[in-house]
Write a structure and sequence with these properties.
Layout lengths: L1 H20 L4 H20 L7 H11 L16 E3 L6 E6 L4 H11 L6 E4 L5 H12 L4 E4 L2 E4 L10 E3 L4 H10 L4 E7 L2 H4 L4 H7 L4 E5 L9 E6 L5 E3 L6 H10 L7 E4 L6 H14 L4 E3 L2 E4 L9 E3 L4 H8 L1 H4 L4 E6 L9 H10 L5 E3 L2 E6 L7 E3 L8 H14 L5 E3 L5 H14 L1 E5 L4 E6 L14 H13 L3 E3 L3 H6 L3 H6 L41
Parallel strand pairs: 2-15, 3-14, 6-7, 10-11, 18-19
Antiparallel strand pairs: 1-22, 3-5, 4-5, 7-9, 8-9, 11-13, 12-13, 15-17, 16-17, 19-21, 20-21
Length: about 550
C-alpha cells in the first residue's frame, strides 16, 4: 500500500507541476483549482474521527510536493558523498556573523535614517527573504559579498503583500514591525510557514489592538492578514505559549513604537532569547535595559555605526570547531571573529566541546580547537540548556564510539520528535545500540554491521551539519539533501570540500549573482528576486 500511495502522490505532483508550468495568470487559476481539490478532501475529512485538522495539514503538504525527477540513464543516485581527507585539518577561516543577529540588524536598519554597513554576513535564505520583503516595503538594503548596506529611510507596510520564505523569525519581524503603524498587511510564505501554528501569536497581538487572520479557512498558518490600529501598549507580558524567538522580533521592533515597550515574562524559556536580544540592543539601542524577567526598550532611532561587526553564529561556529574532534587524526580549526564565551548560547557551545574532549582557546578576535588525534573514553554530553546543539552532541558521541569500541555515551533527551527519529535512524545506519528512558538517551555499544547505505535525508540543517561532522569518523556517508545546509550557510560545502586547508575567506565569498528573470521558487514557477546590490566595500 505504501508503494502504491507513493506512486499516486508522484503522479499527482507531476500533473500539478505541468498545469502550473503551462498556464498564464497562474495565481488566480491555482486558487480556484485548490478550492475544488480541497472540497473533495473536506468531504472525506468530515467522515473521519479524531483531529480533522490533520487532513488540512496533509493536503497542504501534498499541494507543495515537488514533482519527482527521475535520473537519466547512467546518472548517479548515490546522493552527496562525504569523503573528508584522512589527514588532520589545519584551517583558519573568517567566521560568519550570527544568523539571528544579522536579521536583527536588518530589522533595526529600516528604523535608522543614516547609512550603515554590516560586515561578515553569510547571506543565507532566511536573510535573503527578509531583506527582499523589507525592500518591497520601501527599505533600501543592498548586499555585496559579505556586506549588508542600508541607505536609511523607513518602510510603509500598509496594503503590502510580503513573501517571507520559510523562516518563522522573518515572519515575526514583519508582523511586529507593523504594529506601530495603522495598516493592513498580507504575509505569505512557503510550506513550513503554511503549517506553522500562528494562533498563539494571533492571540498575543490582540493586546496590541491588532488582528491576525489566516486567509485559508481551517488553516492556522500563512497566508494571513494583519490589521493593526498602530497603538501598541507601553508594557506587555508574554504568554507561555508564545514561541521564544517571537521575543527577539518584538524587541527589535519596539524602538519604533510611540512609547517604546517594556516586555516581561514568567516562563524561563524566554530568558536565553532575551539575553541575545539585549546583546544586540546594547550595541544599537544603548538605553535598553535587561534584567531577569524584563526587557525595557525606549522609543529611539537605532544608532547604527557606519560599519558594524557582529559575533559569529554560535551553532555554526561550534559545528565547525567540532570537525577535528570527530576526525580520527584530530586537527586544528580556528575561526576569526568575536566569540562571546561568557554569553548564552556561545557559553553552552563551549561547554559541549569541552565535554567531548576539546580545549577551546578563546581570544578577543578568534576561537580555536586543536586536538592531536582521536579521543577515547565514554562521554556525558548535556544540551538541556541549548537544545539546538543536540544534533551535534549525537554526532560527537557517535564519532567517539566509531573510534573506540569500548566507549559509551549519555546524552540529553531529544528536544523534539524529529530529533528522536533522526537519532534512531542514524543509530541504525551506524550499527549503534541506543536506549532511552525518562532521564537521558544512551548509546551503549555496537550491534554489529551498519544498516541502510542509501543517502540519508537530514530533517534540519543542524542535522545536516552534524552528519558532516560524523563523516569525519565514517568517510563515505551520503547525504540526500545537502541543500538544507546550504540554505543556512551557503558556503559550508566549499569549506568541507577544501579541507584540510581551506581559503581564509571560504565561508564569506559571495556566490554568483542570481538571474532575476529565471529564479525558481522550488515549485516549478518563476519569480523575481534581487540578491545583489551595487555598493562598493570601503
Amino acid at each position: 500500500m505504501d508503494h502504491k500511495l507513493l506512486d499516486i502522490l508522484e503522479e499527482r505532483a507531476a500533473i500539478l507541476a505541468a498545469m502550473r508550468a503551462g498556464k498564464k495568470g497562474r495565481a488566480a487559476m491555482e486558487q480556484h483549482l485548490e478550492q475544488r481539490l480541497w472540497q473533495a478532501w473536506e468531504e472525506r475529512a468530515g467522515r473521519a474521527t479524531g483531529d480533522k485538522s490533520r487532513w488540512r495539514t496533509l493536503f497542504t503538504l501534498i499541494q507543495d510536493l515537488p514533482a519527482a525527477r527521475h535520473p537519466e540513464p547512467g546518472e548517479s543516485t548515490a546522493g552527496f558523498q562525504l569523503f573528508p581527507k584522512p589527514v588532520p585539518c589545519k584551517a583558519q577561516v573568517l567566521a560568519p556573523a550570527g544568523v539571528w543577529e544579522s536579521q536583527c540588524w536588518a530589522a533595526l536598519a529600516v528604523q535608522c535614517s543614516r547609512h550603515a554597513q554590516l560586515r561578515g554576513v553569510a547571506f543565507n535564505a532566511a536573510l535573503a527573504f527578509l531583506v527582499k520583503a523589507l525592500n518591497h516595503a520601501g527599505a533600501t538594503i543592498r548586499w555585496n559579498n559579505d556586506i549588508l548596506a542600508s541607505e536609511g529611510g523607513s518602510i510603509k507596510l500598509d496594503g503590502k503583500a510580503l513573501f517571507v520564505g520559510d523562516d518563522a523569525l522573518g515572519c515575526y519581524f514583519l508582523l511586529f514591525l507593523a504594529l506601530g503603524q495603522h495598516i493592513r498587511l498580507r504575509v505569505t510564505g512557503d510550506t513550513g510557514l503554511k503549517l506553522l501554528d500562528l494562533s498563539p501569536v494571533g492571540r498575543f497581538l490582540q493586546a496590541f489592538q491588532a488582528r491576525l487572520t489566516p486567509v485559508v479557512p481551517g488553516s492556522k498558518g500563512l497566508p494571513a492578514r494583519l490589521e493593526s490600529a498602530g497603538l501598541p501598549p507601553a508594557a506587555i507580558q508574554l504568554p507561555s505559549d508564545l514561541p521564544p524567538e517571537a521575543l527577539l522580533a518584538l524587541a527589535m521592533a519596539a524602538p519604533s513604537y510611540e512609547e517604546g515597550l517594556s516586555i516581561s515574562w514568567k516562563d524561563s524559556k524566554f530568558e536565553p532569547v532575551a539575553a541575545r536580544a539585549a546583546a544586540v540592543l546594547a550595541s544599537f539601542v544603548p538605553d535598553a535595559v535587561h534584567v531577569p524577567g524584563t526587557l525595557t526598550i525606549p522609543r529611539a532611532e537605532p544608532t547604527l555605526p557606519p560599519v558594524a561587526h557582529l559575533p559569529m553564529d554560535p551553532l555554526l561556529a561550534v559545528s565547525l570547531l567540532a570537525l577535528p574532534l570527530c576526525h580520527p587524526a584530530g586537527g586544528d580549526m580556528a575561526l576569526e571573529g568575536a566569540f562571546p564565551a561568557q554569553r548564552s548560547p556561545w557559553k553552552e557551545g563551549l561547554a559541549l566541546l569541552r565535554a567531548a574532549g576539546g580545549e577551546p582557546e578563546v581570544d578577543p578576535d578568534m576561537v580555536r580547537v586543536a586536538v592531536d588525534g582521536s579521543r577515547r573514553g565514554s562521554l556525558i554530553l548535556d544540551t538541556m540548556a541549548d537544545p539546538a546543539c543536540f544534533p551535534l552532541s549525537f554526532a560527537l558521541a557517535a564519532a567517539r564510539m566509531l573510534q573506540d569500541a569500548e566507549a559509551t555515551a549519555q546524552l540529553s533527551l531529544p528536544a523534539t520528535d524529529l530529533d528522536r527519529q533522526a537519532c534512531e535512524e542514524l543509530a541504525a545506519r551506524l550499527g549503534l545500540r541506543m536506549e532511552q528512558d525518562d532521564a537521558c538517551l544512551r548509546l551503549t555499544g555496537r550491534m554489529g554491521e551498519a544498516g541502510a547505505t542509501t543517502p540519508w535525508l537530514a530533517p534540519t540543517a543542524a542535522w545536516g551539519l552534524a552528519y558532516a561532522c560524523l563523516s569525519m569518523a565514517r568517510p563515505g556517508l551520503a547525504l540526500a539533501n545537502p541543500g538544507g545546509v546550504t540554505e543556512l550557510l551557503p558556503r559550508f560545502w566549499n569549506l568541507f570540500n577544501t579541507l584540510p586547508q581551506p581559503p581564509r575567506d571560504v565561508l564569506l565569498v559571495a556566490p554568483a549573482p542570481m538571474d532575476e528573470e529565471n529564479a525558481d521558487d522550488g515549485r516549478g514557477r518563476k519569480r523575481r528576486i534581487k540578491l545583489r546590490g551595487d555598493i562598493t566595500p570601503s
